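Today's session is about reading a structure prediction critically. Students often jump straight to the picture, but the first step is always the sequence itself: look for stretches that repeat, for charged clusters, for runs of hydrophobic residues. Only then move on to the predicted structure, which in these notes is written as discrete structure tokens rather than atom positions. Here is the chain we will use throughout the hour.
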Amino acid sequence: MNQTLKYFILATLLITTCAAILPLNQDSEIRETFVDPRDGQIYPVVKLGNMYWFASNLNYQSLKSECYEDEQISCGEWGRLYPITEFRSVCPDGWRIPNKTDWKILEEIIDREGVHALYQGQNWKNNEKASNSTGLSLVPSGFKHKKKFLYQYLNSTIWFNDSTQEGSNWHFHTDGQNNAEDYYFHTHEKEVYVRKFAVRCVCENKPE
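Below is the predicted structure for this chain, in token form.
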């Protein structure tokens, strides 16, 4: 049986939670994957702290999501970019957008190893420090501001949520060279409503 079809059948038979994370062969650097039952796409999964994280950007085609510069090949490599009106609802059932508590996991890693520990080892322009020691594999997928796509190969920006704050629009910027700081975790009121960022989905560790 085709391996991709096998994963898809198994995933659709399981409840779509962390229980549907499937092991890979032991010779793979990423030990687990998740198959999105909505479209059959396969995502590598990495465990950081007590959370499972997608180790690639979400590529689920929602109504208002876009590929960088409207090129389908960009979606395949970088995932899709999502507006503030959609980002909370695009993760598969059982998964969600990371929140401010989940941010502390990444912050501890950054404090200990540097932000480059989160970066995929390829494609970051002028950033030889990218090590991906965490396996999170952040890619420089850029973002969209109004009608312009910006900073591919230089910037990764992913959405975060705060369920205690109505209209939350927290997000995590990591920058190769276009800002003075290596990264920002922040929120602001206006510009974010005309921007589209990438999405990483997370899931709590379930007791065995």
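Discussion point for the tutorial: The chain has a mean pLDDT of 83.
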